[in-house]
Amino acid sequence: MQKIVPHLWYDKEAGEAAALYTSAFPNSSVLNRVLISDTPSGTAELLTIELAGQRFMLISAGPYFRFTPAISFLVACDTKEEVDSLHARLSGGTDLMPLGSYPFSERYAWTADKFGLSWQLMLMGDIPYESKITPTLMFVGDQCGKAETAMETYTKLFGASRIGPVMRYAEGEAPDKAGTVKHGAFSLAGQSFAAMDSAYEHDFTFNEAVSLVVNCGTQAELDKYWSALSAQPEAEQCGWLKDRFGVSWQIVPTAMDDMMASGDREAMGRVTQAFLKMKKFDIAELERAFRNA
Predict the structure, then answer these.
(1) What is the largest CA-CA distance in the chain?
(2) pTM here?
(3) Of 84, 234, 270, 292, which sits most exposed with the smallest number of CB within 10 A?
(4) Residues 114 and 150 in one domain
(5) Is 211 helix (H, G, I), strand (E, B) or coil?
(6) H helices, E strands: number in the chain
(7) Do 147 and 224 have their domain in common?
(8) What residues make up the domain containing 54?
(9) Which pLDDT band, with edges at 50, 70 and 90, does 97 fall under?
(10) pLDDT band of 189, cuts 50, 70, 90
(11) 202 found inside a domain
């Protein structure tokens, strides 16, 4: 199972978004679709999809969060034609950096799709890459300058993790401070991530629209990640937390997948009502609710 899964929050469009994304990327499909009843948002639709071999979760649960460029998805492309094709499919008419040639890539665009989700489409050329799609965290505002600390924090916490090449701002690249991270590659549990600082004025930062789900096999493992990451007690709810940088995480037991995929609507309803009362998930209590024990 993929250890860390990006989770995307939509108002009502998760199914439509899943169809768009799985049609845009080869070797992609919808793996699972579940309806969760009697939540604060009413009936929520939860989908698990695979894009180019990588898992994502999408939920339709009300108009509470909006995507921002604080977390974007960098797509490694092998040809200019691939960049252009993905841009045509994914662009919703808003480009943060227009499709074109840049010093770091012959063909590149930073675009937002029709739902507001940010994609960076990049011809890699001679640059090696491990993953087709890389979640990229941009540290702005009060968090600007903390990208390197975040990479160090995360890689110390997760096994099979490391910091890769880091490009830094040089003198004269104001407003960015020399030595801060222009682009840093790192891996968590064998999965590719990237981080960057930006000192320009932005009207956004991290929020719950994009969170990172950590799948845990045991209560001890779940407790470890919860204790290490949670930094804002007021944000703790239903397995969700925010870390010291404002990034949202969901720390969940792998057993939840089996429960939600069971097709037993009554059991799923009991599990839902149980976890709605929790901050940190209690696996034993969730299993008791599922069995109606």
Answers:
(1) 65
(2) 0.97
(3) 234
(4) yes
(5) strand
(6) 7, 15
(7) no
(8) 4-64+207-291
(9) very high
(10) very high
(11) no
Alpha carbons 5 and 27: distance in angstroms, whole number: 17
Q: Return the number of other C-beta atoms located less than 10 Å from residue 175's C-beta.
A: 10
Q: Helices 219-229 and 283-291 meet at what angle, rounded to 10? A: 130
How are beta strands 54-60 and 4-10 bridged, if at all?
parallel
176 shares a domain with 117: yes
148 Cβ contact partners less than 8 Å away, ≥ 6 residues apart: 166, 180, 181, 184, 195
- Choosing from 153, 178, 197, the residue where a domain stops is 197
Angle between helices 14-24 and 80-90 (to 10 degrees): 160
Question: Helices 219-229 and 147-157 sit at what angle, rounded to 10 degrees?
Answer: 160
What CA dihedral angle connects 75, 56, 228 and 130, to 10 degrees? -40
Does 132 lie in the same domain as 242?
A: no
Residue 261 domain flag = yes
DSSP letters, 99-153, are EEEETTEEEEEEEE-TTS-EEEEEE-TT---S-SEEEEEEE-GGGTT-HHHHHHH
Residues 57 and 32: their CA atoms lie apart, in Å, by: 9
Note the pLDDT tens digit of each residue in 226-242.
999 999 999 999 999 99
How far is Cα 144 from Cα 138, in angstroms, rounded to an integer?
8
Distance of CA 219 to the CA centre of its chain: 23
